[in-house]
Amino acid sequence: MSTEQSVAKTVVSDAEFKQPQLVEHFARVVTNHDLTHAYLFNGESGSGKLAVALQVTMALFCEHPVNGRPCGQCNECIRIANRQHPDVLIVQPDGASIKIDQVRMLKAEFSKSAVEGNQKAFIINGADKMTTEAANSLLKFIEEPVGNVVSFLLTNNKSLVLPTIVSRTQLVDFPAIAPAVFSKELAQMGIDRNYFHLITMLTNNLQTVHEWFENDWFAKLQTAISQWFLQLNKHSPVAFTMVQTDIVPLINNQAAKAITIDMLIEVWRDVLDVKFNAVADAELSFPQIKDQIHQIAFKIPKMQLLEIIELVLKNNGALAANLNFQTILETTTLRVLEKLE
């Protein structure tokens, strides 16, 4: 199998794997010739928006479609998947945004007749990143397409797309990918399986995960919180100093503060799950310290554990009230130490 054929096969399998229900829906729409002229695909990064847009486009051009699905092997499918088809254009941000010149180029190309056949399609990947000028320029073209044109606008956040464009497209919300699919994606990213459960408790956005693992930030934060937790359960005042020396230096924005608090909750939830729900070690958010979690779960009284979890949960309110983050963590540490006495 050539590289080009492999790309086409991957597009089809990726769409089917991540969004089987949407693929089935569009297969029926294509079969019944009910495809509308413009769609807005909205969903988190990694949810399969581009794969589905390409798959539907391939089905429109495919030489051997089967029940509204592309074969993924013909010349048309291969050229579309590899961005080589003259009647299928894909536009994406040039730097931080999609600029008006890119939209003008697209409009110029689509004002012409199709090079092959009578069908044309375009995909704007990152529609929320269009400048206002680019979005306004695209608007009339969407309202009055020239010829047989289907457009797919892809966004991670529909609220950032010009409302007039949203109102003139058919909105398709992409659900978050299933846990099994998400885990497979994490594995393909090279993420250590020890982090899988904690990640899935915090997000299902692959782009967010990618950002977390730049410079090993996520791993460093989990390690710092693990050590903080272990010092707490030794009744050691070192836990207090670790807030300033080990945890706070890793926090540089509001999102990181929220993640830190969520991690504090998750490490104590591990204790709760081991104590009352007998969860498997693979389902722990902090499997690296599973032995210590089991030891603590065995010895800590029920009411004491519930009081500590309640204490940690209150940190979300303190963060929302814009209290000093280091003070929040230090106060929590001292109160947990008191509960453990």
Automatic annotation (TrEMBL):
Leader sequence segment: none
Molecular functions (GO terms): 3'-5' exonuclease activity; DNA-directed DNA polymerase activity
Enzyme class: transferase
EC number from the UniProt entry: 2.7.7.7
Swiss-Prot/TrEMBL GO biological process terms: DNA-templated DNA replication
UniProt keywords, alphabetically: Nucleotidyltransferase, Transferase
Keyword Transferase in annotation: yes
InterPro entries assigned to the protein according to its UniProt record, in alphabetical order: DNA_pol_HolB, DNA_Rep/Repair_Clamp_Loader, P-loop_NTPase
Keyword Protein biosynthesis: no
PANTHER family found in the cross-reference section: DNA POLYMERASE III SUBUNIT DELTA (PTHR11669:SF8), REPLICATION FACTOR C / DNA POLYMERASE III GAMMA-TAU SUBUNIT (PTHR11669)
Protein name per Swiss-Prot or TrEMBL: DNA polymerase III subunit delta
Organism expressing this protein natively: Nicoliella spurrieriana
Upper classification of the organism: Bacteria, Bacillati, Bacillota, Bacilli, Lactobacillales
